[in-house]
Amino acid sequence: MNVRQGYFYTKEHEWAKIEGKIAKVGITDYAQHKLGDLTYVELPQIGKVIKQGEVLNGLESVKAASDVYSPLSGKVIKVNNALENDPGLINKSPYDDGWIAEIEIQNEEETKNLMSADEYLNLLGQSK
Amino acid sequence: MKTIFENSIKGRKGVISGEVNNDLIKKIDEKFLRKEELSLPEVSELDVIRHYINLSKLNFSVDTEFYPLGSCTMKYNPKVCEKLASREEFLNLHPFLSYIDEDSVQGVLEIIYEISRLLCEITGMKKITTQPYAGAHGELTGVLLMAAYHKAKGNNKKYIIIPDSAHGTNPASAAMGGYSIISIPVDKDGNMDVNILKEKINEEVAGIMMTVPSTLGLFEKNIKEIIELAHKYDALMYYDGANLNAILGKLKPGEIGFDIIHINLHKTFSTPHGGGGPGSGVVGVSGKIMDFLPVPEVIKENEKFKLNFNIKNSIGSVASFYGNFQVLLKAFIYIILLGKKGLIKVSEVAVLNANYILAKIKSYYDVPYNRICMHEFVLSARKQLKNGVHAIDIAKYLIDNKIHPPTVYFPLVVEEAIMIEPTETESKQTLDEFIDIMIKIAEISEKEPEKIKQAPLKTPILRVDEAKAARELKLKCDI
Amino acid sequence: MSGFIPHTEEEIIQMLNVIGVNKIEDLFLDIPENLKTKNFNIPDGLDEIELEKKVKNLAKKNRSDIINFAGGGYYDHFIPAAVDVISSRSEFYTAYTPYQPEASQGTLQAIFEYQTMITGLTGLDYSNASLYDGGTALYEAIAITVRTNNRSKVIIDKGVNPLFRKIVKTYSINLPLKIIEVDLKDVYTDREKIKELLDDETAALVVQNPNFFGIVEDFEDLFIFAKQKNISAILVFYPVSLGILKTPGEMKADIAVAEGQSLGLPLCFGGPYLGIIAVDKKYLRKMPGRIVGETIDKEGRKAYVLTLQAREQHIRREKATSNICSNQALCALRAVVFLSLYGKNGFRELALKNFENAEYLKEKFSDIKNLKIKQGQTFNEFTIEIKEDAFNIVKELIRKGFFGGLPAGLFFEDKKNYLIISVTEKRTKDEIDTFYKILKEILKG
Questions:
Q1: Strands B236-241 and C381-386: what pairing?
Q2: Shortest CB distance from B427 goes to which of C7, C94, C292?
């Protein structure tokens, strides 16, 4: 399973890529693989204020439905509209084209609650 | 196949209708009239007959194939039940007639009264409502009854406990009825984990919903303990009767302390499933729930059958009238046809058939809970998965062999689950053929797994692109 | 062994040997002895000859010869023979829900065509494989709106079938949902009152056309008014009337629901019937029940499959859009055959014929002086006001062989003198004339 170095991870299999005050978030390669072919992405509302660990949005695949939990607290400032017409982007490119939203980070301290790539790899090893 | 719309020819019609005065439309103000053209096909009666008969040929069904679909009890439906339930005297009856003149509908009221009594005797319950249209509808009715019971007692209850092996309808029904769910896992023998139950149960639990035998096809060994524990907290015991076919004449849920039960008449009592319904999910209750049942109920007074609209704390109505009456009628005919001995035999042979298949194929597949099963059992395709063969592949290979697949990927607690329910109406010869094919599948999975994975090949269509269906969403014909 | 169990005694012994037990009772050892029942007081079985006699006797204890002028949401329409022929095909009626597309293209395509016809009939975007009945369909429609806009108040006009309203109230007994029913002005919708009640907490407005008293209205302006406040508009419709009447889509309804019994299902003492739902595209993902979609198979051929399953209980469990699983698929099949047979022109003529027959009876009634017809546009059902309690009059009519209408007093305390009469295409001129004469005699008019 592909894990991207330099990103932060949650144990619910979301990632966050932090650049300054902005975090780009999505789901991991492991998560997309578990869900199978994504068929629908319910995008979050721009402007939505969210706490770490709260439900950011919902995903549907052929045989499953799943919630995406926000890796960090903050405000949703951008969403990936391309997913509306092509939810399969998450399957094809979970860490790049398949990003879900950008969040303006409220509290940088919260990254302490997230895992590094190596820690996440470790978790996958355990949960396998 | 072409759609019925593609057979449409302008000006064609499939009914003979009398003269219609087209000028009459002028009597209606424009603003009340439809402007948009009616997009219905224009076809002859023969067009319609040929189209739908040809469509029917693309289906598997109990009357044409063995259909061991676990948890669905796809037994043979005796034709005499169909025939007698289709008599004009039943079909032509307006249900509102009963609201005005009970004398005109004594026969049908008697049928509702009698099937209720018979089902009370079979389940050990005190009273029945025939209103619920399907199993899940029965569950919701049961949950509403729980809510009414607790409300009347002034109890403050928020949760319903459901084992994680339950059908998805249980948690969905509980949520629809206004409750949150507490899930309890199964232990290593496939029973509800009583230790975890003891930790989780509390004063705010309204009830426990259980499927007996469980969806693993196993009898819940700790049932008595669970019931006593529930009642200590004034939580009601709900019996999901989807698997009642295993225990007729052996066990009465009402006798051992269950408070509410729903019965899928389209499973145990042989009313056909119609490609997805109509079913019937009648609900039975113990004495303490009786005062909350939906109205009207059918009662007998001085040898006459009547409607009673006055049940003290009734929840109201969950159906327009008496439920799917014709389905009740078919089940009633089935029960009086089989009688006491026949019904007992149903469960005995259903359990015999399931155990026979299990005994013959268990060395070829992974059996997560190796016990005597009830009327169905669950295998896992874990062994076959080592060669890349999934449960779904086995299902598709069975289709090529003219057998409807078992239920796959349910219950969720078993990886690569294959749930087999043969029912009592299948002969030893049919079971032997099925066993041979299942063994053959296990063998081919070892040597040539690709052969299984590419199935089906003999069907009108091959495997479908489900992702495309859900992404591109084409939900109606081109017209 | 008995009829439907094919095993011989010898086979049973062979099978027990394979399992490794001595007798059938050994298969039930998991059930503790003290829990097993000692009583099973079910009568002995019957043979088919005795069975036929018994059921025939029960059948005869019903007055099925009565000529129907009663509707109330459930109508005595003609059913072409071909409908029965198709729905009694074993391949349709003894199949289960079409989980395996390769083995159930027949059911899947029929449902797909049904979905298409319902959207065509209603002028809305999408439909599903059916719900249980009209009343439960109305609840599901309300649930969609509540889930969508997170509001908790629902305004229902009392012109909506009282049986449907009762179901909605029952479903909500343990939910934080406020159902407000709005009184009629006599038999007409009180639009002003409704407008006053529509506020920012209101999730949905529900009205019915034609209403329970047969009055036909155009609710377009009311729906536009509601939608300006982000309130969803739900219309309860009568399928046959849409052969000529303005569609829910044309009225700008968001969701339309109906009792589908009139589309090829016998009255059959209350069921099985058919819950119809159609929705605007914005509610598609919130719509409950099975939905069939078109796709392709591995070789690119057209194929049908259950889709959007991630909304359903078997995947989403307590978060599902509804708990519905089994529905009324065979009834939907009857409806699609019925609609195909009548087709574009036949269905319009069917609606017109109903209208014509009702108008004919109205005209006849105009010379009965103790009877007043409620004014307003109607379709095949209308309300009359008489001097006596309508309940007693209907009882007398039943004795004379006519189910002469539905006494409104059954559901409306203040309308005991109102009788709701329906005249379908099945009523001959002769039957209508006779009914008129008998009622005139009874009313001494």
A1: unpaired
A2: C7
Q: What percent of chain C has pLDDT over 70?
A: 99
Q: Do C174 and B151 touch (CB under 8 A)?
A: yes
Inter-chain touch A65–C319, beta carbons under 8 Å: yes
Provide CATH code, domain C67-77+343-442. Answer: 3.90.1150.10
Q: Give the DSSP per-residue string, C212-254.
A: TT-B----HHHHHHHHHTT-EEEEEE-GGGGGTBPPTTTTT-S
Angstroms from B387 CA to nearest CA on chain A = 19
Q: Does any CB of chain A come closer than 8 Å to the CB of residue B471?
A: yes
C-alpha distances (whole Å) from A77 to each of A20, A25, A48, A58 are 14, 12, 8, 17
Choose among B105, B97, B233: nearest CA to B161. Answer: B233
Q: Which domains does chain A have, with CATH numbers?
A: 8-108+117-123 (2.40.50.100)
Q: What is the DSSP string of A14-57?
A: EEEEEETTEEEEEE-HHHHHHH-SEEEEEPPPTT-EE-TTSEEE
| Nearest residue to A89 via CA among A43, A20, A121 | A43
pLDDT at residue C125 greater than cutoff 70: yes
> Cβ contacts (< 8 Å) between C119 and chain B: which residues?
476
Q: What are phi and psi of A42, to 5 degrees?
A: -85, 105
Q: Is A55 within 8 Å of chain C by CB?
A: no
ipTM: 0.98
Residue B203 contacts C, CB cutoff 8 Å: no
- pLDDT at B70 (0 to 100): 96
Q: Are B345 and B375 in contact (CB under 8 A)?
A: no
Are residues C88 and B79 in contact, defined by beta-carbon separation less than 8 angstroms? no
Query: Has residue C193 got a pLDDT over 50?
Result: yes
Picking from C35, C70, C273, the nearest residue to B96 by CB comes out as C70
Contacts with B466 from chain A: Cβ below 8 Å: 37, 62
CATH of C81-338, one of 3.30.565.10, 3.30.300.20, 3.40.640.10, 3.40.30.10: 3.40.640.10
DSSP state of B163: E
Q: Residue B411, preceding bond cis, omega within 30 degrees?
A: yes
User: Which residues from A are below 8 Å from C285, CB to CB?
Assistant: 40
Indicate yes or no: CB of C62 within 8 angstroms of CB of B223.
no
Q: Which positions ≥6 away from C160 have C-beta within 8 Å? A: C138, C206, C207, C208, C211, C212, C236
Q: Do residues B279 and B133 touch, judged by C-beta distance below 8 A? A: yes
Inside any domain, residue B405? no
User: Once rounded to an integer, what is the mean pLDDT over residues C149-175?
Assistant: 97
Looking at the 3D structure of chain B, how many domains does it have?
Answer: 1
Domain boundaries, chain C: 67-77+343-442, 81-338
Any domain includes B262:
yes
Chain centroid, CA C294 distance in Å? 27
CA distance C287 to C97: 18
pLDDT computed for residue C262 by the predictor: 98
A12-67 pLDDT tens trace: 999 999 999 999 999 999 999 999 999 999 999 999 999 999 999 999 998 889 99
Q: What is the CATH number of the domain that holds B242?
A: 3.40.640.10
The Cα of A43 is separated from the nearest Cα of chain C by a number of Å equal to: 14
Split chain B (479 residues) into runs of 10 and give each run's mean pLDDT: 96 88 93 96 98 98 98 97 97 98 98 98 98 98 98 96 93 96 92 96 98 94 96 98 97 98 97 97 98 98 97 97 98 98 97 98 96 96 97 98 97 94 98 98 98 97 96 95
Structure tokens at B21: 């005065």
Residues of chain A with C-beta less than 8 angstroms from the C-beta of C311? 60, 65
| Across C313-337, average pLDDT | 93
**Which residues span the domain enclosing B140?**
81-337
Q: How far is CA B108 from CA B111, B180, B477, C73, C407, in A?
A: 5, 39, 41, 21, 22
